[in-house]
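Incident review: delayed structure delivery

Summary: a single-chain prediction request sat in the queue longer than the usual turnaround. Root cause was a stuck worker, restarted by the on-call engineer. No data loss occurred. The affected request and its eventual output are reproduced below so the record is complete for anyone auditing the incident later.

Affected input:
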Amino acid sequence: MSSDVLKVPDWSMIDNPISFKHRSDTLLITVGDSWTYGDSLGNTKVRNGVDDTEYRLNHVFGNIMSEAMDASWYNIALPGGSNFLMLTWLEEIIMMGLHPYNEITCVVTLTESGRHEELKMMNRSLITQQAVLNDILARTYYVIKVLAKRYPNIHFITAHNFTDGNNSTIDLCELSWLEVLLDKTIQNDTRIVISDHIEQMNYDARYPDVFDIIDRANARIDLLDSCVYCNKEDSRHPTEEGHALWAEYLLNQL
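Output delivered after worker restart:
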C-alpha cells in the first residue's frame, strides 16, 4: 500500500508516511509522529528535507519489533502529525483491507495533544488550557477504544512518547517512551510541549494557566535534553539506542 492513498497535509515536509515490509502472516502496525517515523536516525533530518530511508527503516523501533516477532510491518507515521490525523489514517488503511493475517498487533505511540486538526476539537466552554488538553486527550482515547471494539481481531497497545497519559480511561502502557529512556517516572500531566502549538491554542484568547503550561513544557524539554538516548535538536528524537530500548519495552507488553 503506497502513501498516495492518504492525503498528506500541505505543511508536511515528507511525502512518504507509510512504509511496509513483508515477512510473514503475522502483522505489526506502528502508528505515530516523528518519533515513530524515525527522524534523526542516520542522516535523516526531516526539517532539512533529508531522508536516510534504508538506515532509518532498519533502526526505527517498529522494524526492531517486527524482526523480533518475525512479523510483516506497516509503519504509519507523520512528523509533526496530530494524534487525531494518525488515528484517522489508521482506520482508513484498515478499511481498505489488510491481507488476512493470522495475528495483528497495532502499537499507537501518541504524541502531544493540541496539534493542527485538534485545534478544531478545542472545547471553548472549558476555562483552562489544561482542561482543554485533557479533553482532547480523552477524545483521543475514545477513538482508540472505538477502533479496538470495531476491529476485535487487532491487539492494540497504546503509549505516549514524551508527554503524559491518563490510564484511568484506557488500557495504557505504564511508562512513556521518555520514561523508559530516563529509567524513571516523570508523570505530571504534561500534555503539550512544542511552543508553537501552545501559542496556537491561545490565538483567540489567552488561557489563565498558559504560563503554567509553558513551565511544564520547558521542564519536559529539560528532561529531553538531559536524556543520553535523545538527540539534542528539533523534538529531541531518540537515538538508535533509544529506539532499541523502546522496542524492548513494547515487546514485553505483548
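Verification: The mean pLDDT is 93.
Action items: add queue-age alerting; document worker restart procedure.
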